[in-house]
Amino acid sequence: MTARREASAPPDLPGYEYVRVLGLGGFADVFLYRQHLPRRDVAVKVLLAGSLDHDVRERFQTEANLMAQLSHHPSIVTIYHAAIAADGRPFLVMEYCSRVGLAERYRAERIPVPEVLRIGVRLASAVETAHRAGILHRDIKPANVLTTDFGWPALTDFGIAATTGPAVQTMGMSIPWSPPELLAEHPTGDERSDVYALAATIYSLLAGRTPFELPGGNNSAQQLVARIERSPLPAVGRDDVPPQLQAVLERAMAKHPSRRFSSAMAVARALQEVEAALRLPVTPLDLPDEAPAPSGLMPSDDEDATRLRGISLPGPLQVRGPDDEDATRARSVVVGRPTLVAPTAPAPAPVPAGVPDGPDGRRGGRVAAVVAGAVVVVAVAAVLVASLGGADPVPPRGVSDTFAPPQTGPAAAPVPAPHSLDGTRAADGAVTFTWQNPDPQDGDRYLWGVLTATGEPTLVLVDDERVTVPAEQATGEVCIEVSIVRADRSRSARPAQGCTS
């Protein structure tokens, strides 16, 4: 076992009194200081003297700026100040979260399901807030979730987060919570990669282990990667975890991003559904423009989708091992997704005069959500109708606009997606998919392609409602997407997607 290094010397910070070491990291140490004015305990993250090259300084500065941009959120650690100490080391002054963090808890205790659900909803709200700001966290895991004095989870460590724009960044995701697309030869990812890591963190809180860890088995980095890429998600293994919650985790951690929840908010809504089914109080979403979700109703993909500005990360990928978080391997990564504007949700009901804030100060004030909940029943019927109508699968990204509908003349009727998409595997391993056209017209053709976890499908035009994926391309689960293409070159706004094992 590798011995832990000694902490670096705490810097002399005017206006602060050093107390003790809080934690050691690969690039920085964290100390507890007591600020003199205003008087309070703070966590000070100090860059190591041997890590002062340009790239690390830039990463440190990025973390300060991103956390400052997001730290108004009740489940994201607040940053108070950033500067350079007299010895030349940059430092961040942050909120001190005094309680035991999730990394220490999930292996040491059986965390109750209601608490895990509350943590999950609050973390999902934090991740959704970051995504709406165009930021991917990229390293969501129990070790990066602290606990405040009032018991709230607080997401931290945005040092490897991705921002919009052309900046080159270093990426380092911890293997046990990483999605398959970030472990591929040519990694790609978007907010659904954070959705996977969020769900993997929730899984760990329930199971007391990482998702693909085999107790007593071979849990090397190579074996974990193989299981993450190919093995189905194991059951949590607790009698008190309802099947509905296991199903939420399985969807959020699907191998292919297109089969996951399309946003962190959708994960939060699904966890609220589980709370409602268990007759627990529904944890409110910590989003300034969101009304409470109707209890007992699952949002459609159209309702829960939140699209962000494209994110480009042409930098090396560092993948951390399960035990040694400094162990890395370099890869390039490009992250991107098109921009769509999320619909504005109705404002929450106003808080009546004289009603006090919650007991947790910055993390209080949930009365508005409770008052707004009084109107939920009125909306149930309308939402139920919309939910039962179903939603087409998430559209592919990066597809050429060769078959885009004409932009002139009166608006044409939307082109529907195929339905009854089904696959059958032959004895030789090949998979044949068939589908039906709900509104056949003269000249209709079909645009289809095989979905992969590591890139966009190569689309091919065919005349028949049948295609075959050859055996050499049909190992494991096979997923395809299909769109109808009209004679005027307009096509389905949302392709049908289907998979077979």
TrEMBL record:
In terms of InterPro entries, this protein maps to: Kinase-like_dom_sf (IPR011009), Prot_kinase_dom (IPR000719), Protein_kinase_ATP_BS (IPR017441), Ser/Thr_kinase_AS (IPR008271)
- Provide this UniProt record's keywords sorted from A to Z: ATP-binding, Kinase, Membrane, Nucleotide-binding, Serine/threonine-protein kinase, Transferase, Transmembrane, Transmembrane helix
- Name the SUPFAM superfamilies on file: Protein kinase-like (PK-like)
Question: Where are the membrane-spanning stretches?
Answer: 367-388
UniProt: ATP binding residues: K45
Identify the stretch(es) annotated as Disordered.
Answer: 285-306, 394-414
Keyword Acetylation on this protein?
A: no
Q: What EC designation does it have?
A: 2.7.11.1
Which is an annotated GO molecular function term of this record?
protein serine/threonine kinase activity
- Signal peptide range in chain numbering: none
Protein kinase domain: residues covered: 16-278
Q: Does the keyword Transmembrane helix apply?
A: yes
One protein family per Pfam? Pkinase
Its EC top class is transferase
Q: CDD domains in the record, alphabetically?
A: STKc_PknB_like (cd14014)
> Which PANTHER family does the record associate with it?
MITOGEN-ACTIVATED PROTEIN KINASE KINASE KINASE 20-RELATED, SERINE_THREONINE-PROTEIN KINASE NEKL-3
Q: What is this protein called?
A: non-specific serine/threonine protein kinase
